[in-house]
Amino acid sequence: MKAIWNGEVIAESDSTIVIEGNHYFPKDSIKGQYFESSKTNTVCPWKGMASYYHIKVDGKENKDAAWYYPDPREMAKGFKDYVAFWRGVEVKK
């Protein structure tokens, strides 16, 4: 699977996990030069607190377009630090 934004592949992996219709990429499969930590957090009742990244490609920024669970609840431990995308990021084979 590939995650693409602004014409650039920002993550690529053969080992994504699909949860609630979202492909979660292993953290080591994202291209770190395009990601900047965000101060945004949200809470999922069963997964726990999510943290976010802004994505920056060729001078354009997509705020809070990627999220992950750095310390998930027990039911979600299997995808700790996996990264998912939204806000216009295309995920495809």
Keywords:
93 residues, mainly beta, three-stranded antiparallel β-sheet, 0% helix, globular
Tell me what the structure shows.
The protein has 93 residues and is mostly beta strands. 0% of the residues lie in helices and 54% in strands. The chain contains no helices and 9 strands. It has strands spanning 2-5, 8-12, 17-19, 22-24, 35-44, 48-57, 60-68, 83-85, 90-92.
Query: Mean pLDDT score, rounded?
Result: 97
Side by side, the strands of the main sheet go: 5-6-7-8
From the spread of the alpha carbons, the general shape counts as: globular
* N to C succession of SSEs: EEEEEEEEE
Summary, kept brief:
This protein has about 90 residues and is mainly beta. Helices cover about 0% and strands about 55% of the residues.
Helix/strand layout:
Elements: E1 2-5, E2 8-12, E3 17-19, E4 22-24, E5 35-44, E6 48-57, E7 60-68, E8 83-85, E9 90-92
Antiparallel strand pairs: 1-2, 1-9, 3-4, 5-6, 6-7, 7-8
